[in-house]
């Protein structure tokens, strides 16, 4: 469902050129569960931004569901993002003036065949599933770090995306809350979702069936995990 | 050096009252190394904000170095923050228009007896110590999550504060980078600093000599860690 061929992403800072992605070849099949690990600065978030159609590669191609995304307009990319992809950002990216419930509802605007009532119900359900029943009316600055992270997760999940991209989704969560989130991801995987998760925690990566290791903008290893 | 007595912090959201801190009694001695753990939403960041003089308690008292902070004006609190405390925020809080070097230099403005050259040198040194030699001219939106986290750490450390408060300082760091940061904290502890670190990771907490567990705004356990 995902195919990257010789993807590169170069940032310019002054006269410096940074090869954030330095030639990535990657195939991911439908309903695969992949973890991405690697040192700080190795290109994980950059890879996720390209997979999530939030950024374009400098060169190379990205085929998503057989379609060459490199040829889509920014409107076309936005449509793919809103209908097929759920993205949990490393820095959450919640809208500061909306409370948790509204932040999640907003991602449902693009879901076909919804009414404002069904969106509200669906948003509330997802927030309950990440343990935030008591915090739905809080705005982001009235939430703890781990609560914001869970709103970001709820927002990504509520639209039932076929592809879930999660960048360090448990970085601010204690062990017990983090296990709750991983159980939720595991269940979504059983229900058919394709899941790609960036994490620096071994015990989180082991939920996946395949682990990619990145370094300096390249994938240096790609292993099946043993049965759990 | 730190004494909290029956400290409470209540937030109001609409008609709801949230007891983020629900009666905290805590003594921390000079040069102690304390880890704080607990579920998401249990009050850890709220506790850190009060210890760091960024927030006032709703009731109770906070003595810092024998001085009752509850009586200080906001100017007095700012002075304490700038001269005695180094704070690593859970969400980094870097200034978006300044590059990494300038973000760190800014925290040195209050250090007595510095020139712009000594501040620049000191800021650069601290960024090298957290492995960011190559990224000093990048602004926050040109940095990875873990790089931003390390700039926040460098900024907290460069002023040689007597008390270091770090809220999830390794939440976005891979294991190897995280060990580098913990080695740095351990060294600062040997040099005499008092360190209080919030973390959800066991292996990070074990660097400390004492671990507090929080739940629902209270400290429910307070244990010495065994020798490492
Ligand atoms: N400004 C605020 N207004 C209202 N409620 C708040 C505010 N800040 C925090 N809270 C609530 O107070 C509780 C404690 O928050 P705090 O940030 O201290 O938790 P925490 O232990 O640091 O959690 P985490 O591990 O998720 O970072 C949370 O349930 C949160 O929703
Ligand atoms: N907009 C940008 N401009 C310039 N350089 C950038 C930009 N964004 C990222 N970089 C650089 O590209 C490299 C890869 O960044 P990326 O965010 O993908 O790393 P990462 O693997 O997600 O790291 P982390 O684990 O710390 O989150 C980093 O060294 C970073 O400094
Ligand atoms: Mg990243
Ligand atoms: Mg917190």
Provide key terms for this protein:
four-stranded antiparallel β-sheet, alpha/beta, binds magnesium ion, homodimer, binds adenosine-5'-triphosphate, 228 residues, globular
Give an overview in words.
The structure is a homodimer of 228-residue chains. Chain A is of the alpha/beta class. The first copy, chain A, is built from 7 helices and 10 strands. The first copy, chain A, has helices at 44-51, 74-84, 100-106, 116-129, 145-157, 175-190, 202-205; strands spanning 2-13, 16-28, 33-37, 59-64, 67-68, 85-88, 163-167, 194-198, 210-215, 218-224. In chain A, strand 1 and strand 2 (16-28) form a beta hairpin. In chain A, helix 3 packs across helix 4 (116-129). The mean pLDDT of chain A is 95. The A-B interface holds A 11, 13-14, 37-41, 44-45, 90-91, 135, 137-138, 142, 144-147, 149-150, 167-168, 171-178, 200-202 and B 11, 13-14, 37-41, 44-45, 90-91, 131, 135, 137-138, 142, 144-147, 149-150, 167-168, 171-178, 200-202. One adenosine-5'-triphosphate (ATP) sits between chains B (11, 13, 18, 20, 38, 40-46, 90) and A (135, 138, 141-147, 172).
Rg of chain A, alpha carbons: 17 Å
Proportion of helical residues of chain A: 25-40%
Strand line-up across the major sheet of chain A: 6-7-8-3-9-10
Largest interface: A-B, 35 and 36 residues
Number of extended strands of chain A: 10
Which band does the percent of strand residues of chain A land in? 25-35%
User: In oligomeric terms, what are we looking at?
Assistant: homodimer
Q: Distance between termini of chain A? A: 25 Å
Q: Give the overall shape of chain A.
A: globular
* Ligand set: adenosine-5'-triphosphate, magnesium ion
Describe the main β-sheet of chain A briefly. 6 strands, mixed
Structural class of chain A: alpha/beta
Helix count of chain A? 7
Q: List low-confidence stretches of chain A.
A: none
């Amino acid at each position: 469902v995902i195919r990257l061929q010789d993807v590169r992403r170069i940032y310019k800072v002054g006269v410096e050129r940074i090869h954030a992605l330095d030639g990535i070849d990657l195939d991911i099949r439908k309903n695969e569960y992949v973890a991405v690990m690697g040192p700080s600065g190795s290109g994980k978030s950059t890879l996720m931004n390209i997979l999530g159609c939030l950024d374009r590669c400098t060169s190379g191609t990205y085929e998503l569901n057989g379609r060459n995304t490199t040829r889509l307009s920014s409107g076309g990319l936005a449509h793919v993002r809103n209908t097929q992809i759920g993205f949990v950002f490393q820095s959450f990216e919640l809208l500061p003036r909306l409370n948790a419930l509204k932040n999640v509802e907003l991602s449902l605007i693009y879901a076909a065949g919804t009414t404002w009532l069904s969106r509200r119900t669906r948003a509330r359900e997802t927030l309950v599933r990440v343990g935030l029943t008591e915090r739905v009316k809080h705005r982001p600055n009235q939430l703890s770090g781990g609560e914001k992270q869970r709103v970001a997760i709820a927002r990504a999940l509520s639209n039932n995306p076929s592809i879930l991209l999660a960048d360090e989704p448990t970085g601010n969560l204690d062990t017990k809350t983090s296990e709750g989130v991983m159980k939720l991801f595991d269940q979504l995987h059983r229900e058919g979702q394709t899941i790609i998760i960036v994490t620096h925690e071994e015990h989180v990566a082991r939920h996946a069936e395949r682990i990619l290791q990145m370094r300096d903008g390249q994938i240096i290893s790609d292993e099946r995990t043993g049965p759990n």
